[in-house]
Design goal:
By secondary structure, the chain is mostly helical. The chain has one domain. It contains 16 helices and four strands. It has a four-stranded antiparallel beta sheet. Strand 2 (71-74) and strand 3 form a beta hairpin.
Length: 298
């Protein structure tokens, strides 16, 4: 069930509208896939298949488009709460799990059979075929939605709690880059993620195309490629919500000048240091997303 009070639009509605714009004219990516496949003997293609399915790219593009837009949580009773904490961050990927000593692989028996998808990508690589091109359109989301339901965009901790049950210790959100604790999320379970009605104007064929292409081009050619060679914008568009992803790249690089992810201080200190020493006023959300982007190309 989705719901939103007058003046607000559920993210279910907004995501459906964006997806329809994409499906009306799917983007041609064969040249990009071909480059990624040939440039590294299929290894980059294999890596990207496990990180950038069409579903994952569309979802990332969606949140990039609304990144500068105010988000709200709306209760079934009509209450509205301004969402300042990025509950929608998906920093933990399925491919990460097997590298964690605490992880119990029986988790996959209860949810997504990720091992099967990895084997499919492996098979394409071993057969000398393009893993990314062959799986892009049908692989599932590659990140784990810990705090919301992807079908309803209602706040939901089911996946977080399920993953927690298959830990030998405890899932540390802080160590994974989340600037909040799950207990902050729980009071809002069942609330709908929304934007104001006027936010729907952000979704046009142009903005969807730009956000989508930025993600896949940077995945194939490196962070900043799209901005530097393809996505140059007018001053009007440069100040729009699509211009924001470049800020998170700069924030992440500034972060690495002062800290490491393993030994970072609290987020309040990080934000203060970046603002005072680097002149970058970035939220924990922006820094975390930037770090995730850098790791994509690491």
């Amino acid at each position: 069930m989705m719901f939103s009070p007058n003046g607000y639009r559920s993210l279910v509605h907004a995501f459906k509208a964006m997806s329809q714009l994409y499906e009306a004219e799917p983007f041609e990516l064969s040249s990009l896939f071909n480059y990624a496949f040939k440039d590294t003997d299929g290894k980059l293609s294999h890596n990207r298949a496990l990180r950038y399915s069409k579903k994952e790219v569309l979802e990332r593009a969606f949140f990039d488009i609304i990144e500068d837009t105010e988000l709200f949580l709306c209760s079934p009773n009509g209450e509205v709460y301004h969402l300042e904490i990025p509950f929608y961050l998906n920093l933990l990927e399925y491919r990460h799990l097997k590298h964690h000593y605490w992880f119990d692989t029986n988790y996959f028996d209860e949810c997504l059979d990720w091992a099967g998808f990895e084997k499919t990508a492996d098979d394409f690589l071993n057969d000398g075929e393009d893993s990314w091109a062959n799986t892009f359109n049908y692989f599932p989301n590659t990140s784990i939605n810990l705090f919301y339901n992807r079908s309803t965009f209602l706040i939901d901790t089911t996946e977080h709690d399920r993953l927690q049950r298959y830990n030998s210790t405890s899932l540390s959100l802080e160590s994974e880059g989340y600037p909040f604790d799950v207990e902050i999320v729980r009071p809002f379970v069942g609330w709908s993620m929304c934007i104001k009605d006027e936010g729907m104007r952000l979704f046009t064929t142009e903005t969807v195309r730009e956000a989508f292409f930025k993600i896949v081009f940077d995945a194939a050619f490196g962070i900043g490629y799209f901005e530097e060679t393809v996505g140059r914008r007018s001053e009007r568009n440069a100040s729009s919500s699509i211009g924001r992803p470049k800020k998170r790249d700069l924030a992440a690089k500034a972060f690495l000048k002062h800290f490491t992810w393993e030994t970072k201080p609290d987020w309040k200190t990080i934000v203060k240091v970046l603002k005072e020493k680097e002149g970058i006023d970035a939220s924990p959300k922006t820094i975390s997303r930037g770090m995730d982007d850098l790791e994509d190309n690491g």
